[in-house]
Write a structure and sequence with these properties.
The protein has seven helices and five strands. It is α+β, with helices and mostly antiparallel strands.
Length: 183
């Protein structure tokens, strides 16, 4: 049986990340964006071979320019370049409100953008390693989630890539949104 990644579980997992470690800051930003933004893991990860697309990469995958945190810090905009609800790839802008919650993506995105100034705006949104910049793959994200959940005492094997979208959907259901509004 799969474990449900709830906001309290996410907060507990994030507590085990170091704000001075590049990969931990990237993980914090990616996990919170995935959860709050209703993102599927495949929407914020990519394979090394996807980079061969060159400038076309940004038409299919999130890049650094996909994120805009407003100066006031009250919200951020995520531009999704390609999705099943946007067949003509015009891009969809998702507005995500800030909260005082440490597991909120606006709160996590500021340290990420501050630590990630060395990469170009057309670079993939997330990467592994500040200097090596390896692909931020689905396998890496799931393994990282499993390892952090284990360290946090939440178990290891029941976590997978579907956990991120579920936390947002569960939260939306708890606030009264219908299944149709969530899909």
């Amino acid at each position: 049986m799969r474990s449900l990644l709830t906001r309290p579980c996410l907060k507990h997992i994030i507590h085990h990340l170091s704000p001075s470690d590049y990969n931990d800051v990237v993980t914090w930003a990616a996990f919170t964006l995935g959860c709050a933004g209703f993102r599927r893991v495949g929407e914020f990860t990519y394979k090394e071979s996807d980079r061969e697309l060159g400038h076309e990469f940004g038409k299919w995958f999130l890049t650094k320019k996909s994120i805009r945190v407003r100066a006031s810090g009250s919200y951020m905009e995520l531009t999704i370049p390609s999705s099943k609800t946007d067949p003509f790839r015009r891009g969809i802008i998702v507005t995500i409100a800030a909260s005082n919650y440490s597991a909120g993506p606006v709160h996590a995105m500021r340290p990420f953008l501050n630590i990630d100034t060395h990469r170009a705006q057309h670079a993939p949104l997330f990467c592994i390693g500040q200097s090596g910049q390896q692909a931020f793959t689905r396998e890496y994200v799931v393994q990282r989630l499993q390892n952090l959940a284990s360290i946090a005492g939440l178990g290891h094997s029941a976590w997978n890539g579907h956990s991120f979208r579920r936390v947002a959907a569960t939260g939306a259901t708890e606030t009264g949104l219908s299944e149709h509004e969530i899909s």
